[in-house]
Design brief:
Two copies of one chain form a homodimer. By secondary structure, the first copy, chain A, is α/β, with parallel strands linked by helices. The first copy, chain A, is built from nine helices and eight strands. In chain A, the strands form two sheets. A six-stranded parallel β-sheet of chain A has the order 5-4-3-6-7-8, sandwiched between helices. In chain A, strands 1-2 form a two-stranded antiparallel sheet. In chain A, helix 2 runs antiparallel to helix 5 and helix 3 crosses helix 4. The radius of gyration of chain A is 23 Å and the shape is globular. Chains A and B meet through helix 1, helix 2, helix 6, strand 7 and helix 9 of A and helix 1, helix 2, helix 6, strand 7 and helix 9 of B.
Amino acid sequence: MRKGLRARHAEIPELTTRRLSIYLRCLEILDAAGVETVSSRELADQFHLNSAQFRKDLAYFGEFGVRGLGYRVSDLKTQLVEILGLNRQIRMAIIGGGNLGTALADYTGFNSSRYRVVALFDSDPAKIGTTSRGGVQVQDVRQLAQQVREQAVDIVVLAVPAGAAQAVLDQAAEAGVQAVLNFVPARLKVPEGVRLKSVDLKVQVEALVFHLARLEQSEAASARTPTGR
Amino acid sequence: MRKGLRARHAEIPELTTRRLSIYLRCLEILDAAGVETVSSRELADQFHLNSAQFRKDLAYFGEFGVRGLGYRVSDLKTQLVEILGLNRQIRMAIIGGGNLGTALADYTGFNSSRYRVVALFDSDPAKIGTTSRGGVQVQDVRQLAQQVREQAVDIVVLAVPAGAAQAVLDQAAEAGVQAVLNFVPARLKVPEGVRLKSVDLKVQVEALVFHLARLEQSEAASARTPTGR
């Protein structure tokens, strides 16, 4: 039973998750406006969604609608909040007290009602005991396992040098960490029981590069036509 | 003519760009294997692509196939490299010499044959003249316009405090910068002629949070069933 459930959940595509976030935002708007029930078609019309897709996305998680009535806005909102794991604060620990790790520890997006950086680790004695500008103290990475337990860390962020990444990842896995956000540009063997998401900032640049290439090509094209300036 | 071209280009969806990158990788594989021509169907079959989507994506940029023959692998590869702007090195300047800016200046992904960080700027006299670990010198942000010209900067990366972001963005636009990658969590008014892409690292965490929520729910479910351990 457990295995079956896990397997089913593991197959939920990331795009579904993103759409669930959008549905939640729509429901919040309706709820704030005092709307009590909504059909998938009404929801789709009002927010330019695909109603079949909406029903399919929800079907991953069970039966939510009431026949002939549609969805109870407030109930569905609560259920989406739970499904998306938004009903509690996410506690993060950052490993690597260099420039990137320190920047991430103080990153506004990681320090809100929703997320909190509770610990920052390094192995360098010169860094241990110092404090980031935002007030996060650098601790000895040898205390990782203990701190993960005591501070109830949900997500570990890897911001160490490439050569240290695998050892640190294994250490985090042994400490029981189940989710890792990786900023290290290195091929890592992901330990069993760990979900690792790697962030490649190059990808963010690619859309801009494409835009620049388009600009250049249209400028070249306009230079070749008599109507161009 | 020029306006028409620009407008058409501006409408190309980001997902198309990503797919073009995938097509390019497939063509590189075929080219390396000595394949000279390929039909959209063969390409689709071999790499699990959608052949109609492939033809539609290419149609944005003109006519590439040869009737009855398909595509010349090597030619199409060259054309995609150009369309994607991959035929030259992209030169980046980072504004903000704090932890994040310095980390980005030394980021491996931004320093390859493809990308190069050519300048790092700050307004703090204590930082100006210092050098990042990777060897990028911090320059006075008042020299931005001059450096953008002299160093042929393609993309500016914003990594300044939120309060300074708008002024710095305007300054970059005045210096003729057409593409900006923004790490500042602030609402910015984007100057005309500038394409701005904002990076929100929170988004990267959300997929992990969802994964954790699923784990918790399946554990709770298995605890309620007699077959659960």
